[in-house]
Write a structure and sequence with these properties.
This protein is mainly α. The protein has helices at about 1-10, 20-30, 35-50, 60-70, 80-100, 110-115, 130, 140-150, 155-165, 170-175, 210-225, 235-245, 250-265, 270-275, 280-290, 300-305, 310-330; strands at about 180, 190-195, 200-205. The protein is built from 17 helices and three strands. Helix 13 packs across helix 15.
Length: about 325
Amino acid sequence: VKIKKRLASEDFIPLKTDSIQAWIARANGSKLTQRREMLSAHIRWLEDHMGSSIDNVKRSNLQALRDRIEHLKKTTKGDYKINTRNSYLKDLKTFFLDLSKKGNLVYELPHDLIAHELRSFEVRGESEETKSSQAKTPNQLQLGLRDLLDRNLPEYAAYYSILFLTGMRRNELADSSVWTFVNDPGKKSHIKLYATKTSKTRNITLDHSPMAIDLLDAVAKWKDPSPHAFGMDGHKFSALAYEHGRFFRPHDMRVSNASYLMLLDVPETLIARRLGHTTNQSLQSYREHSELLELEEGNNLCEASGLIDIFKDIISSLDKDSKMESLNHS
């Protein structure tokens, strides 16, 4: 009778292993992101650890789950960042609290107990990537972008340029399925972005980076005949960009974007909104970077970085490649 009632209820959450991913997608939004796939992997691990289905979870099982996430390792690049671990704990806490509220757990676990056992790890400093990345000077940016052009890699020069002008995360820009360029009458030109890392949507206005519009247009025209274009395989493309960048890394562009905007007196609340930050922790790092920079005269990122001419060269190179590819196909 209890099972029939649960099946008849609209709030019933199936607890079979093969339905976990469907629950995660439904509970957190329409997109099953890489982060949620990882969440599903943690739940499946817990079922194997328990030797039974997830609805039999006990306090000791939650403790084992938190311990697993604390010591989580990447296969090639060392430990996961603490903020990434905390995002997993937050999603898992939401998952188990929801199951508890709907009466889907065999053992009654108080909500405050679940929250305590899946509490976040303490953050003692800014994230490792932000801490290790550098805001690049105008000369360093020019040197790196010119190097990519000299090696006939205009698509990667454009990629790094747009990262610098928008502050997007490297995989966000490389995956064109998560963002759109909006240029509607009566509105500022902007990029509307769905951030898979945070599962939130944000808008990036382009009034401080007007040449981003021309670069985006050049990339859009260039990418059709190319198998290596933005959006074909976002993770692969950003990984290749990481390898090709001899003088900087993708995340250096994000740090540079924020640091330059601070020197242009853009309000920090707007900078945080553009970057998708919810705390002032990373902004403090950007302030420290900006104190060491000396910019060109200008009112926007293109002028203050002194990169207008090189942006034009990148656009010209992409346009030439696109025309040559079209002729070859003809």
